[in-house]
Amino acid sequence: MDARRSAPIDAIAAAIRRERERVGLSLSELAKRAGVAKSTLSQLEAGTGNPSVETLWALGTALDVPFSRLVEPRVAPMIVIRAGEGPAVPASKANYYGTLLSACPPGARRDIYLITVEPGPAREADAHLPGSIEHVVVISGRLRAGLPGHLVDLDPGDYAMFAGDVDHRYEALAAGTAAVLVMEHV
């Protein structure tokens, strides 16, 4: 993975530490609640780990914060993220990257991502914060997404909305699949 596709390790390390301290959890307690090894969490806070999307979602859920709070970039008066750039975080078991495009501003509870998915193993996503809703618009390729037993095939321009607070999945049906994902946290 080149530098443009790497996770923002320093920002993630600072955010995990900041949020853990905000809620008053020890490293051990947060690791236990998130279901990750204490050594993994320690490495992440030290900025030496390589977090997966799944690990960051688990930590966000354990801390009761949106995923974006753990990877959000600096706030600027105008933000432009060129294609192929941005803080991309890989999934551990699928050829899937989530790139945070816009973290939710104060008072709002939504985040915007660009997701890229290639054919191969599906991205099996665990439930997010209670009340989370996912909005997906496919921009290229073909995507199968939704809840187990309620998956839908989407083409460019198609939109789907489904609960994000239950297990769900994303699967590329064609090479070069990309979509805009809006996570709504109610």
UniProtKB/TrEMBL annotation:
PROSITE patterns, per database record: HTH_CROC1
Keyword tags: DNA-binding
Pfam families found in the cross-reference section: Cupin_2, HTH_3
Domain HTH cro/C1-type: 16-70
Record-linked Gene3D superfamilies: Jelly Rolls, lambda repressor-like DNA-binding domains
Domain of life: Bacteria
SMART domains (UniProt xref): HTH_XRE
Keyword DNA-binding: yes
Gene Ontology MF term list: DNA binding; DNA-binding transcription factor activity
Name of the protein in question: XRE family transcriptional regulator
Organism expressing this protein natively: Virgisporangium aurantiacum
